From TrEMBL:
It comes from the Bacteria. PANTHER family: GLR1098 PROTEIN, RESTRICTION ENDONUCLEASE DOMAIN-CONTAINING PROTEIN-RELATED. InterPro entries: Nuclease_put_TT1808 (IPR012296), Restrct_endonuc-II-like (IPR011335), Uma2 (IPR008538). This is Uma2 family endonuclease. Residues 15-176 form the Putative restriction endonuclease domain. Pfam families: Uma2.
Amino acid sequence: MEEPLRKLSGNYTYADYLMWPEGERWELLDGVAYMSAAPSRRHQEIQVELLRQISNYLIDKTCKVYGSPFDVRLAKIEDEDNDIRNVVQPDISIICDKSKLDDRGCKGSPDLVMEIVSPSTASIDYIKKLALYEKNEIKEYWIVHPTDEIVMVYKLNENKRYGRPEIYSKEDKVKIGIFEDLLLDLNKVFEQ
C-alpha cells in the first residue's frame, strides 16, 4: 500500500527547499511543500519505457529528456532562490532550450512534462499541476494513468490555455506534439 502524500502548509521557497534533507522527494506548489514516497514498481516500469522511447529518438538532437528526481524551478531566469515558490519533479521533463539547464536542474518551463499518476498524487496531478503547468506555459502536459492504461495529453492552444485533453489507450501510438515524427507506442509503455 502506498504512503499518503505529506503536506507542509506555509510559504516556502527554493532557498528553504535546498536546506531540507537529501533523499526526500519534496515539491513546492505555490509555496506549499509536498513530500511523496518512492514510486511503485509499476510506476517505474512505465517511466523507464517512456524514457527509453524518448531517449532513443533524441539521440543526436538538441532537446534533452530527464526523469525524476530532477528539479524544475518554474521561475524566471532572473529570480533568486528565495523568490521561487514552485519547484516540481515531473516524472519526465523534456527541455529544448539549453539555457534553462544548470547543475541544479531546469530553471524555467520545460517544453513537455509527464506525470505518472499514483493514488496519493492524483489530485495534485489532475488539478494543481495542471493549473501550474498551464500558467507557466508548458507546451504539453501528459498525465499517464497506470491502472486505467490511458494517457491524457493537454496541449497549449493559441490563447495559452489547455483545451480538452486528447485521450489515448494502450492500443494507440501517440505523437509527441513538440516533435515532427516521434510516436510513442503505448502498448510497450503499459506492457506487464
